[in-house]
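dumping these here so i dont lose them again. two proteins, back to back, each one seq then structure tokens. dont judge the mess
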Amino acid sequence: MTEAPQIPEQSVEKARSPLFEAWDMFRRNHAAVAALLALALIVIGAVIGPFLYPTDPFEMVWAPFSPPGEEGFLLGTDYLGRDLLAMIINGARVSLIIGLAAAVVSIFIGVTIGALAGFFGGIVEEVLMRVTEFFQVLPTLLFSMVIVALFGASLPMITLAIGIVSWTAVARITRSEFLRIRELEYVMASRASGVSNAKLMFRVILPNALPPIIVQSALMVGSAILFEAGLSFLGLTDPNIVSWGQIIGSNRQYILDAGFTVTIPGVAIFVTVLCISLVGDGLNDALNPKLRQR
């Protein structure tokens, strides 16, 4: 009996799906994998934490500025005597929602403007890129402060303000990818077959332009969380909603007397943003075809 022909290992590797190759590249980045696990724990804690620790974050439960560990309060109390642990747990959900929602707003605006500019070119590109440059040179924190001050410091308005001032990087990345991909042969073939411009942009070109946009989107979530913390530190926040930034903002006057009331939510923001940044770096490596070919 003749032995069955063996398939070379290189052929097996080529047969693997791009998604599997991306995951294989991502898991080689140990820092990104550890950050993903830590981020998953933070998200799980934000979702189920209020049910496991049902203390009202606005309830004054003990003396103000009680240090961590006193009278059973693991993280202590703030300037009003509210349980910091309950505030951190409940604030995680709001901070993550603000980060995700603001990133979605930025991605929608940036992808739309970048796709139109990169696909049509000419006068459309000139006008849209001048608009992008105008928003890019504006002081983003000051501009968002003006929006919040004019329309109110509600959670939706804060999210919208962050999204409006943060879309320029996505627009430039999308434009550059569209300029590159629109000249490829399969796009030209689709155009010759009579496919409409809308389908060309969002069904043919955009799916192939997603990798760098996904990486930038992951980083924007962390930037939005930092942005909200900055606005809250300046007092531009909704006092009826607990977020990590709101905890810092409400206790900022007592930073020298009870530093832990600001340090603890600051550490929560730092760890979360660091995890998001490391995951973004891992995605950058995983979605880069040049690195996967090594």
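---- next one ----
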Amino acid sequence: MKANWEKIEKNVGVLDVEIDEQKVAAALDKAFRKVVAKVNVPGFRKGKVPRKIFEARFGVESLYQDAIDILLPEAYSEAVDQAGIEPVSRPEVDVEQFGRGQSFKFKAKVTVKPEVKLGEYKGIEVPAADTEVTDEEIGKELERLQQRHAELVVVDEGPAQMGDVAVIDFEGFLDGEAFEGGKGENYSLELGSGSFIPGFEEQVVGLNIAEEKDINVTFPESYQAEELAGKAVVFKVKLNELKRKNLPALDDEFAKDVSEFDTLEEYKQDLAAKLKERKEKEAESARENAIIDKASESAEVEVPEIMVQNEVDQMLKEFENRIRMQGLSLDLYYQFSGQSEEQLREQMNGDASKRVRNNLVLEAIAKAENLDVTEADVEEELSNLSKAYNRSVEELRAIFSSNGYMDTLNSDIRIRKAVQFIVENSKTA
């Protein structure tokens, strides 16, 4: 096989590949065995049609696409290895020549991982963070715990207030006609949560039980349902039930209920110790991120847009998994937030670009400092994953290997080594 790589712009280039006639012939044979098992020809059992009769009836050209599909993946992978490039996107393939008795020629346009010109990454200075715990912080933590352990009590009378859980029936109308997805019965809505269209929850405030009201709101211009975007609608709302949080008193009994301590003072001391530990971990993480950002900012690298969009895809999947654990789907999230997928992707774009750039710089640092990944590193990583997911190291290794994730695992380890290196070689300002 012949392969030639030519860069045409920035991080984009073309692989020019040619595969000899013998491999084309072998691929056509394999394609015939695959196709003949599926065709019906009178006078022959399925799979037993002779090659000459098959080609006379269907033409040898009927095998070309299957033969290309057989040859292309392996040929592309081999060409990438020969050229010594790291593609970051699916190739745009243009078949230039394919036929019996001919070589197979194709061009593959690909975006490759960019080159990184490192700046200063040793001796980076970052200020020390304050990890002292204040009385105000302890008070806020106690308030948060009060909210968590509050009891929802049914309110028999009086108007709805911010913070209440209102159980409502609602139906939305656009120009007097009910619209799809705008109806709900006995829906529990926490007033002030911002989970409904802007302006809706504020208008529920003041309603009494069994009272009905027309609520006028306007959908955001960016709302995902185009027929509702920017439109003024009316929701007919009825308040069925009202629940209010009853906060427990901050006393020794509260401490006994929520902890292992007998007095509130003992519990406060424990909270202070835990808050300090948390602040120290957060400070360590913030310091690490600041060092990474400075090393990244001092480097020169042009990040391909496809790498950013691939990262956004990954971030969107992570976000979907998080909200699914909260009982929401992406469609429901878009409906309640008024955001579209396009807007959410745009919102994630900046973080995705930063994450890709930082990883590219860290990979370059690992290479410059010869921070290789050893088998012991891999074994330790698999062992940690084994404990986290309650699966054996051997099972995880088999899963990673069969799904082609070992390279990703090695890359993650190498990046962490680079982070450790620049942190260990940093200074406190």
